[in-house]
């Protein structure tokens, strides 16, 4: 289907990071719960800047590779990466990116 970024994300990023998240959450818990934290304003600005930069670079790479759906492929992959990283480090903001990820992957569901 020409969704190169999505395939690469699932194989090389999502699976290893989910295993690392399980291990990290198992070690950093309070009783049977995981302790969550909030991002600071500076962290949020840094995350948005990195996301936009990554979006622009990946869009150009996917366009050059002949991807058939650059925008959807790019958005779903990058939001998935962001959600996975925020979840791994137990930032409460992951819940908002999880909603965005669902919308990016299936915009017809909205």
Question: Which descriptors would you attach to this protein?
Answer:
4 helices; 2 strands; mainly alpha; two-stranded antiparallel sheet; 110 residues; globular; 4% strand
Low-confidence stretches: none
Strand content: under 5%
Average pLDDT works out at 84
Number of helices: 4
Can you offer a commentary on this structure?
- The protein is mainly alpha-helical.
- It contains 4 helices and 2 strands.
- The protein has a two-stranded antiparallel ribbon.
- Helix 1 (4-27) packs parallel to helix 3 (70-88).
- The chain is globular.
- The two termini are 23 Å apart.
At a glance:
The protein is 73% helix and 4% strand.
Topology:
Elements (H helix, E strand, L loop, with lengths): L3 H24 L1 E2 L2 E2 L6 H25 L4 H19 L5 H12 L5
Antiparallel strand pairs: 1-2
Helix pairs in contact: 1-3, 2-3, 3-4
């Amino acid at each position: 289907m020409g969704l190169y970024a999505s395939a690469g994300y699932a194989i090389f990023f999502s699976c290893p990071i989910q295993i690392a998240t399980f291990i990290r959450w198992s070690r950093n818990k309070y009783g049977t719960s995981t302790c969550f934290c909030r991002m600071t304003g500076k962290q949020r600005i840094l995350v948005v800047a990195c996301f936009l930069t990554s979006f622009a670079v990946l869009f150009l790479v996917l366009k050059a590779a002949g991807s058939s759906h650059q925008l959807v492929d790019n958005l779903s992959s990058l939001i998935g990466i962001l959600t996975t990283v925020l979840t791994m480090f137990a930032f409460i903001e992951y819940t908002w990116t999880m909603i965005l990820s669902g919308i990016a992957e299936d915009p017809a569901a909205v």
